[in-house]
Amino acid sequence: MKQFYVYSLLFLFCVSRTYAQQTPLDFSNPVQTFTAFGGSQFSFSVDQIDTNNPVGQFFNDGTQEWQGFFIDLSSPINLSNQQIITLSFYQFDPNVHTIMVKLENGSDADVEVLQTNSGSGWAYNLSFDFSNAVLSGDGSSVNAMGTYSRLVIFIDGGSLTPGTYLIDDINDGSEATDPNELDVIYEDLVWADEFDYSGVVDASKWFHQTQLPAGGSWFNGEQQHYTNRIENSFVENGFLNIVAIKESFTDQGETKQYTSARLNSKFAFTYGRVDVRAKLPEGDGTWPAIWTLGKNINETGAYWQTQGFGTTNWPACGEIDIMEHGLGPVNHVSSAIHTPSSFGSTINYQSFILNDVANDFHVYSMNWSPNQITFLIDGVGFYTYNPAIKDASTWPFDEDQYLLLNIAMGGVAGSIDPAFAQSEMVIDYVRVYQNTPLDIEDFSKDEFRIYPNPVSDVVTIKANVEINGLELYNSIGQRIIEKKMNTSYLDVSQLKAGFYTLRIRSNNRLATKRIIVN
Predict the structure, then answer these.
(1) Do the domains 21-171 and 188-434 sit in the same CATH topology, yes or no?
(2) Which long-range contacts (CB under 8 A, 24 or more apart) does 482-490 make?
(3) Which fold has domain 448-517?
(4) How many Cα atoms occupy the beta-carbon half-sphere of 502 within 13 Å?
(5) What residue segments make up the domains of the chain, in order of their start?
(6) What was the pLDDT predicted at 15?
(7) Which residue among 222, 319, 424, 471 is the active-site one?
(8) Is 13 helix (H, G, I), strand (E, B) or coil?
(9) Which of 45, 321, 337, 496 could be a cystine partner for 291, CB 3.0 to 4.6 Å?
(10) Are strands 380-385 and 373-377 parallel, antiparallel or unpaired?
């Protein structure tokens, strides 16, 4: 619904965001991003010695005395357990440089430790001992023992010294963990649209939502009509195209200058994983979204409302924004949660920087379990929503949600480029996974057998019925093997160890089976 957004949200997304991470930090994860300030710049780079080793690159332009970088940690550094932080530092020149590590946002006052280094090349495991730290702004010595959630780095602080430096392996002695680790792995494909047809969108799976809300305009100041015309949504060459067009269009007594499409899935579910592989539209003011709403939403014109399920207003129905683009700088996509406890300019969101969302496909995912909702891009988790108290205010996510795909124009997405003519969101597939029983579905158990399972080389399928095809999917929903001939076996010897989903087709029947490769 995306109703009741306030314009402060646009400001929030336009600011450079930080990504909560845990130490150790080895820059192998794209969310291990430092926020630079004071004229500095942070980027990812590679080790000058080992080009397979990712590192962080830190740059000062020398225009200000205190230029720096910070990262917010999802698990605070606890100096009561370990008072030494180490990092590896690379400099390109032989001069003396100072490196300060400062800890902020803690249980005690901000503290810092200074080290010096000289000589070009790597200085491995420089040690910053906080049992001999100083209080920031005070200068007095202190045996620091608190917990701190922000780590700040200054290079040559207090001087106008430009330079580029590399840092790797920031370690406080804690064990590396993933704050976005999935608590439930969903493996059985239960609903999908592969768009392996051409023409109009499959009406058995999708509903075009076109009815304007009361007042004659969509929420958040948007400027488009949603239509069911093939110009705004169609399938071609295996891809769904949702197209935003600049054109004068009159519908329901209202004339607007842009058209687009908004699709509701005719499938709703509780708990599972959603994977959508997509490229996003170009142009200022475009606002593509992949998201879900509670099936019980009371929204006139929405599919499930027309089926008699509209009993609950937004945001009490819950909203899960798997992917939005256009609420911040180009290539900043974001995910968000809207509930009665936080909606509109919600605090429950995170953004993620990609290289080229308009020309590159990415898999935008959401993993929804009874305890948490984790958002992923290309299989990498970057934000998890897991409120400590789960009630109707914070967690309306124990009932069915349905999928929406759309492009909005303008509103909180900002001014639309005057030169905009049209652009599209191109979707390769939409897949929903849940965990269904491991027994064969739609077939009696004596019709075929799969063995061995677990398997390391070849899976054999012994059947008493004709098998028309086999498809094997990996854990992020990518089809990696398809067979329409010689379907009595499947060679998995080249696959990595893990869980896979095998789909078996026999005429109009379908079975899915979990395969474990070891």
Answers:
(1) yes
(2) 487/461, 488/460, 488/461, 488/462, 488/463, 489/458, 489/459, 489/460, 489/461, 490/458, 490/459, 490/461
(3) Immunoglobulin-like (2.60.40)
(4) 29
(5) 21-171, 188-434, 448-517
(6) 30
(7) 319
(8) helix
(9) 321
(10) antiparallel
Tokens matching residue 326: 């256009």
Q: What is the pLDDT of residues 388-441, one digit of tens each?
A: 899 999 999 999 999 999 999 999 999 999 999 999 999 999 999 998 754 334
> Minimal CA–CA distance to 288: which of 410, 422, 425?
425
Known catalytic residue at 319: yes
- For 252, how many CA atoms within 13 A lie in the half-sphere containing its CB? 15
HEC per residue, 351-405: EEECCCCCCCCEEEEEEECCCCEEEEECCEEEEEECCCCCCCCCCCCCCCEEEEE
Closest CA to 128 of 71, 86, 172: 86
pLDDT at 440: 38
Amino acid at 45: S
Average pLDDT over residues 79-92: 95
- Tokens at 127, concatenated: 């040690």
**Considering only the top CATH level, what class is 188-434?**
mainly beta
pLDDT, mean over the chain: 90
User: How confident is the model over 131-154, as pLDDT tens digits?
Assistant: 999 999 889 999 999 999 999 999
User: Is domain 21-171 classified as CATH 2.60.120.430?
Assistant: yes
> Span 483-509, mean pLDDT?
83
pTM surpassing 0.85? no
Instruction: Name the token pair of 432.
Output: 């929903």
Indicate which residue of 112, 299, 324, 424 is catalytic: 324
Among the listed residues 231, 264, 228, the one whose alpha carbon sits nearest the alpha carbon of residue 430: 264
User: What number of other Cβ atoms are within 10 A of residue 381's Cβ?
Assistant: 18
Alpha carbons 106 and 77: distance in angstroms, whole number? 9
Where residue 197 falls (left for φ over 0; alpha for ψ -120 to 50; beta otherwise) is: beta
